[in-house]
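yo

u said u wanted the structure for the complex thing, so here. seqs first:
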Amino acid sequence: MDFSSMSCSDFVNVLASSEPVPGGGGASALVGAVGAALGSMVANLTIGKKKYADVEENMRECLQKAEDLQSRLLDLIRQDAEAFAPLAAAYGMPKTTVEEMMAREAVMEPALREAAAVPLAIMETCCEALDVMHELALKGSRLVISDAGVGAACCRAALQGASLNVFINTRSMSDRDAATQINRRAKIMLDDYIPLADRIFTNVQSKLFEKN
Amino acid sequence: MDFSSMSCSDFVNVLASSEPVPGGGGASALVGAVGAALGSMVANLTIGKKKYADVEENMRECLQKAEDLQSRLLDLIRQDAEAFAPLAAAYGMPKTTVEEMMAREAVMEPALREAAAVPLAIMETCCEALDVMHELALKGSRLVISDAGVGAACCRAALQGASLNVFINTRSMSDRDAATQINRRAKIMLDDYIPLADRIFTNVQSKLFEKN
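structre next:
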């Protein structure tokens, strides 16, 4: 199911329901796509403006990156839903006898790893988006600076949201070394990029208060 | 134009374009609706579970509130776009002669006030959503606790995002007393609810690390 072709209202309504997908992972990917799109918007409204001619080339690069990130994040909504199906099937397997438990475990472990890999990819994509947003907030048109700030807040939420979907899957993995390694990668991204998102937001906010 | 009936991809693509709406305000409302919907999901997946029978009544109340907030936030996407039209028209008015400037100012001031009122309403709705999310994260099913954390992160982003759309409009208002009053209301919400969102997120994260 390609949830990104669903209307926004329908997506929100099925998210709200007890349907297994979309869940927090798909929601994070959508919010990240909204964030990246705000980056594209800032670039689009800066390109071609005389006042910003000296950053035109830079803005074009930002636009290309933001558009790519935005379509990757939309696709990650689908990937997240697809990774959930084998996991749900594994959770549904019987676990009464030793044989059943072993068969279940053999299916469960790779399913968990895949279900953690997709939100990890969402996180990586949001970090890239925040790097672009940083540049857009510094060099983009002052008229749309608030949109760069909103974009940073969205990418921050998507990064945090996706991290919880990494952790909820790694916590059930049997291979603790692999789980620890995945968790470490997620934590490094949170440690590096949440402060960047906050810096972008605070800078935008204080610019809006220069004459307020 | 009712943007919430647009597909998620189309919404993201038109947001990314140089089209005047949707912008950061509409994006914030959508992200808030996604957050509230995650709250509904947590309630829906807790209601009817034997283990959570003692909070059943409470969860039903949370569900009702979350569903209401989610539909109000979806409607605020439309309201934000509608409030932008008269503002865009005012910005387009000539300002060469004194008469023109006065005519422009007469239209501009109420348009700015309305364009600030909608994101202020988005903020208020997100604060209500965070109160509900707080309860859901504490009492909802442990199996979907990550979704309450993602919901809190989304409502936080929507709250922050909407605040920038309040400030970008108040900064141009001539009535500085009115502007200051609106800014104060927005700042109080940020001061009260950003820490609550962070607390919800941190609690969820540490619960996921109890066995990770």
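Chain A has a mean pLDDT of 96. Helices of chain A lie at 8-16, 24-44, 56-91, 98-139, 145-170, 176-208.
cya
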